[in-house]
Design a protein that fits this description.
With about 500 residues, the chain is an alpha/beta fold. It is built from 15 helices and 25 strands.
């Protein structure tokens, strides 16, 4: 499928183990690095979602009763298929999303393998509660039962990576799935559907319906037979999902936006950490919810830090994602590029701007590229400081003391992650306890252990994902209480 001479990929829905041709209009999805049509996506709707939900409902009857050993085996089979096709999937991901190919190979696809292997292994460690009361002859214990048909809605920035982070636990714990990948990046999900046919996964356990959020996404969210929704995406869409499901009390996990702060204290190791901080800003072309977009620097080292940071950002090549030297590549779409450039213009007009131009070859001239914007002398209430931009625009400001740094870091409506850079372990713990975010990294960034809970506070979301948190989300806990007749023995 990854033959580089092929034209656009025609996506079909995957329902009940079969590819269902679209008999409705399709729309184009463009490769961000060159502006060329990469895929045709079906304009699916309610009927397609109904068909997928019915398939998942039918499959749930048997899948929910399978042994954990069988589910573990099948999850590892899926991981094997992704791993076997890593090179192809990485190429498809870069064509479809625009991220550097080295990142697809080193991060996105390997993490997709890990997601299935991790949750397969987690099935070996079932955690139930039991209480025996011999004096009253009562035995209490708990079991965890799958919820049913679950709806998964995933974003365009880490397409296969985040899709599999939801798929793996959903099916590991006995649920069946109707998933809607982003309409901007549907190709690797489509290829995954093809690979599922090489495993023992029963038909109907995983179903993909492709199309727009306003049609497919809303149909999944509002379907009475979809018992829970796991969503990663914008805060605006997450808010709408919460509103639409409020009356049905549908279980939700919403991982949404971020406006993440890095706090750099006067004792921070700039020699070894400036590049790490720059990477936290620019990884995935800053199109990641965990990206640092506000850098708070102690006033005593601000003049030392800023030129080092700018110099480091200049060393990050912006351009062709298939160039192994590229660190920052294209924005996902023409519309998103215009949004990011609008913030760059705001910075030109209201603050001080250092702008690092992309280096484009001829084949990338029609791609969706912007430069790196480093903004200084910016007001704390500027949209540049408070709104999620999701592009390579970062504000660098001074602070006087610890209290001020914490106040500024907490001053947005978001609370997904933050980083603290200091040599003081006491300060690290003290500040971390006061930062309002779901994750705080100290002298590092994007170190993820799947056993640890992941999610945000405030408008960054609700719910957590990770080994135990995903198990709790995708299962219902039942208490069984049995009276034993301890006096009836012979």
């Amino acid at each position: 499928m990854a033959n580089k001479t092929e034209g656009p990929i025609r996506i079909s829905n995957y329902i009940n183990g079969k590819f269902v041709p679209s008999y409705v209009q399709s729309f184009a999805s463009y490769s961000p690095s060159n502006g060329v049509i990469n895929a045709w996506i079906p304009c699916s709707g309610q009927a397609d979602v109904d068909q997928a939900v019915q398939a998942a409902t039918n499959a749930f009857k048997s899948w929910s009763q399978t042994t954990s050993d069988l589910r573990r085996k099948i999850l590892n089979q899926i991981a094997d298929q992704i791993e076997k096709n890593l090179e192809e999937l990485a190429y498809l991901e870069t064509m479809d999303q625009g991220k550097p190919l080295w990142q697809s190979k080193a991060v996105d696809i390997p993490r997709s393998v890990l997601n299935f292997r991790h949750f397969a292994n987690s099935l070996s460690y079932q955690k139930g509660t039991s209480i025996v009361e011999p004096e009253s002859g009562i035995v209490n214990y708990t079991i965890e039962e799958p919820v049913g048909v679950v709806g998964l809605i995933t974003p365009w920035n880490l397409p296969l990576y985040l899709l599999t982070f939801k798929l793996a636990p959903a099916i590991a714990f006995g649920n069946t799935v109707v998933a809607k990948p982003s309409e901007l990046t549907s190709v690797t999900a489509f290829r995954l559907a093809q690979l599922l046919g090489q495993t023992d996964l029963p038909n109907g356990v995983i179903n993909f319906v492709f199309g727009y959020g306003a049609t497919v996404g809303e149909a999944i969210v509002n379907h009475a037979d979809v018992k829970l929704i796991s969503f990663t995406g914008s805060t605006a869409t997450g808010r709408r999902i919460a509103q639409q499901t409020a009356s049905s009390f549908k279980r939700l996990s919403l991982e949404m936006g971020g406006k993440n702060a890095a706090i750099i204290f006067e004792d921070a190791d700039l020699v070894n950490n400036v590049e790490k901080i720059a990477r936290s800003v620019l990884f995935n072309s800053s199109q990641i919810c965990l990206a640092t977009s506000r850098i708070l620097v102690h006033e005593s080292i601000y003049d030392q830090f800023l030129p080092k940071f700018i110099e480091c950002c200049r060393s990050f090549k912006i351009g062709d994602p298939f160039d192994s030297e590229t660190k920052v590549s294209a924005m996902i779409s023409k519309d998103h590029l215009a949004k990011v450039q609008g913030y760059v213009e705001l910075a030109r007009n209201t603050a001080q701007l250092t702008y690092i131009e992309p280096q484009l070859n001829e084949k990338n001239k029609q791609g969706f590229f912007t430069g790196i914007a480093i903004v200084t002398e910016v007001k704390h209430d500027s949209p540049l400081m408070t709104e999620e931009i999701f592009g390579p625009v970062v504000c660098v400001i001074k602070f006087k003391n610890e209290t001020e740094a914490i106040e500024v870091a907490n001053s947005t409506c978001y609370g997904l992650s933050s980083t603290i850079w200091t040599a003081s372990l006491d300060r690290m713990h003290r500040v971390a306890h006061r930062i309002q975010s779901g994750t705080v990294w100290g002298n590092c960034w994007l170190q993820r252990n799947l056993n640890m809970p992941f999610g945000g506070v405030k408008q960054s979301g609700t719910g957590r994902e990770g080994t135990d948190d995903s198990r709790e989300f995708y299962t219902n806990k039942k208490t069984i209480c049995i009276a034993l007749d301890l006096n009836s023995g012979h």
